[in-house]
Amino acid sequence: MEKIALLENRRILLGVSGGIAAYKVCTLASRLAQAGAQVDVVMTEAATRFVTPLTFQSLTGRPVYTTMWGALDAALGEDAVLPTHVVHVGLAEAADLLVIAPATANTMAKLAHGLADNLLTALALAARCPTLLVPAMDVEMWAHAATQSNVATLRERGARLAGPARGRMASGLEGEGRMVEPEEILGHIRLVLGREGALAGRRVVVTAGPTREPIDPVRFVSNPSSGRQGFALAQAALDSGAEVTLVTGPTHLPTPVGAERVEVVTAQGMHDVVLATTGAADVLLMAAAVGDFRPETIASQKIKKGEHDLGVRMVRTPDILAAVAARWPDSGRPRVTVGFAAESENLPDNARAKLVAKNLDLIVANDITARDAGFAAETNRVVLLDRQGGLERLPLMSKAAVAEAVLERVVALLTAKEVIDGDA
Ligand code: CTP
After folding, report:
1. Looking at residue 419, what is its pLDDT?
2. 3-state DSSP assignment of residue 49
3. Does an H or E element contain 59, and which?
4. 140 and 210 assigned to the same domain
């Protein structure tokens, strides 16, 4: 697992209350710690019946706090971060975010009424940072009017909720009340922490994945794009606080929390959605592997195999970036357009030609013949070329790291443009 720039050195107070879903929160604690966050876990008495403090301590490498009275000893230990003897105040003040997962009906009821009868609820009362509640309880408890009214109160006061999801409960019941999965909680955490980022209030359109061009109802022409690079870009844009529309061809990747996902199939379909959404966007990141050709006609019935080979005449699909450049030649929308170039030879020259031809601010080029980069790989090795003639070779890195690097350049380009345009 790797670092996430947004989470590095951020202080996350992870409150764990007593529900069976607590075991899944171990995964969350581990993920956050590996991403670079400082995770201080605070457990209620009931939570320690499900998972031991030692588990969280091992995963986060930090002391775990369980009671108001024992907390003092822990805080004065070698690893102590808190000079204060008022541990709950010290922990609360230092935190960038308080996450309570699982948040039981009991803990939420206490929070709604301002009770402070254990370290976690005392902390929640003292904290001024944003609070994210991740409820987990049985269907009937979640549906109960008391819980619903407590949740409404907490929301009104600014708490955010992740879930609960529908599904099968530990009790065997089906319905709403399941804790959302750790990856999704992480997405909500990123959304809250990213809100004040460099792209706050900006609209970013990202395209991802392959397109599919049907031949008949069961056959199509496509390419091996997994969508990973585009989805990573959408996540990086969310981490910077942007409002993100993710226009994606067919892929099974989960939608980054907070992104609006628009699914398309063909190049023409992607073209139509991009043109409809880009007029209001500040940034367009065109990471999709758009098919350049489609069968001239689509058979309405499945083509029978017969005796002979099948000749399919292929015609051009619209070039989406060219259409964007033609639609908004001078209006400055989108302010920053980034293209991608999949090349198998002459990478810098071919990429630069595309940068010019498609009127881009930046092009991210990769060699699709490398096995550890490009289509369907987890990692990517790219070269960034800009309009001013700059060329930067990035080392082999994860697609998430490439996305963070690209977004950094986008923020710089956006800032530079607005200074020049005089409307910053
Ligand atoms: N692109 C597009 N519309 C298309 C094809 C590509 O907008 N019909 C975009 C891609 O999303 C990418 C950039 O153009 O950002 C370059 O794509 P690439 O496939 O590398 O280049 P092509 O323009 O298709 O040129 P060629 O296939 O000849 O290399």
Report:
1. 67
2. helix
3. helix 53-60
4. no
